[in-house]
Amino acid sequence: MNKHAGFSDLLKGPLKIISQNGKLIAITVTVYLILYFISFILNIASVNPFFMDLSVKIMALVSAHPGTPEYTELLIAIREDVGIFLGIETAYAIFYFFCGIFVETTIIIIASSYYTGNNLSLKELIMKVSRTWTRPFVTLFYVQLLALGYTSLFFLPFLIPSLVLFDHPIILITVLFVLFLLFITFYLYLYVVWSLAVVVSVFEDTDGLSALGNARELVRGKIVDGFLLNLFFIFVLLAIFMAGSILSPVMPPVVGLIQVVSIGVVSLIQVMAYSVFYYQCKNNMKVSVGSEYTQIPHAPVVDENLP
Hints:
The chain is mostly helical. It has nine helices and two strands.
């Protein structure tokens, strides 16, 4: 790949990967969407009865008198329902998390085979995924912690103006809007590093903080392309949600299914795009002692001893 390739090549790269590895990608996407759709339906089917039961008990609690045995029984029953609901949602969240790890690892390995020129069989792909998935798991765990910490860190700057400028709504809205823009902008920058770190943990024998450090070094000089890549996929997802909100009154179940499938496919294309981005960044770097990256100078190097 040309080391000067830019943002347009990030969008063309996934199409090239799909054209060469269409069969493996089709199998991966099909299995992923089937598992996701079945778990989505099971999640709704298992949660809906608790919502119905919980709403009935809450209505009964409103009319009950505090301190009575009936009131105490309702509180205990509501607490049990909430505990069961949280347990079900936690189980599905863990399932989605691991399903996402396996499918991302698979897509990244397929993208790697495109650039290395290796033609993977389905058996070879499964073997590579089984040997590799633990590294992106560790990296994603750190990414989730960093995202949680970043969100918590920015909660205070949003809270303080809300308390101080409560009586000045126009100023408050302006301040919160500026803070929101700063929050989103910096988050998109961090998301470039975090997403690239997952790719690094598959391509390289590293994970966790080490993968995050390598990703941070790799994006030097290419951060704008990664930032634009994030914006592009955000706009695509917004378009999907807007189209769904317009069409959902006509055929709600069908539109909902199409939205789920579309979001899943877009997320996989984004993973492929970040695999392309990894190779762009790596071609812009050289590995020095200790597997550290240093940027390749674009200007020609001239020997000082030449006349």
